[in-house]
Amino acid sequence: MNIQTVGVVGAGVMGIGVAQNLAQTGHQVILVDISENILDKAKHEIRNNIRFQSFYHKSDNTETPDSVLKRIEFSTDYKNLENTDFVIENVTEKWDIKREVYHLLDSICPADCVFAANTSAIPITRIASATKRAEKIVGIHFMNPVPMKPMVEMIRGYHTSEQTIETAKKILAQMGKECILVNDSPGFVSNRVLMLTINEAVFLLQDQVATAEDVDKIFKGCFGHKMGPLETADLIGLDTILFSIEVLYENFNDSKYRPCSLLKKMVDAGLHGRKSGKGFYVYQ
Known about the structure:
Blueprint: E1 5-9, H1 13-24, E2 28-32, H2 36-56, H3 65-69, E3 72-75, E4 86-89, H4 95-108, E5 114-117, H5 124-128, E6 137-141, E7 151-156, H6 162-174, E8 178-183, H7 190-206, H8 212-223, H9 229-236, H10 238-252, H11 261-268
Parallel strand pairs: 1-2, 1-4, 2-3, 4-5, 5-6, 7-8
Antiparallel strand pairs: 6-7
Family: Belongs to the 3-hydroxyacyl-CoA dehydrogenase family.
Keywords: Oxidoreductase
Domain 3-hydroxyacyl-CoA dehydrogenase C-terminal: 187-283
């Protein structure tokens, strides 16, 4: 498949990063979300991200933010995806919302269009069941910030075809990404491990075993991690962390995935991390 136009559904942190990465690697992008305000914010964030990137990572690429943004169409109308070759979905980790999005995409997009779910925990086989093209559904778990992370986790659902896998590998290579292919399971590899680690780190904070700073210092100083688990939680978004750990708890019915009550309380209070200005740390 010769991929010309890529649809990106959801203009949150991940959707913004995916759209930017695609546009910077020469793709035409249609970024869809439910309101003009969200899309205006996305445009502003992409512009700032490109400026930030050029400041810290000097390269021969002299493209301006405006030239990159010209490759992105911002829309609230899903019907604009009717001629897309490939769609990457990045909506919130709530199954009821995702299911409706896939019903809509399935009714609008061409029959040969591949859908890639950028989910952190929801099984790809379940997502495929919401469509009439189960063989064309694949999971692509991008890492944040998307344009700066060279590796992704690709997930094969029960019905995912080899052709779909190869198509997804092709577009990822065009985006400058390497992928690791894994089989379908809630949370896949990365988040079955990461979400448990973050949740347990929040329990340590709740139990007053250590401060957030000291928990993170131990992981950075003792294990060589670039970020500690609580810093990572703030980067991902505490609401996304909670959604993901709840999906794992629901799917495995195992008490080890029980969300920490402090995590729930912080999400209820709107302390979602970097995107809200405050989580385990305060951001200006």
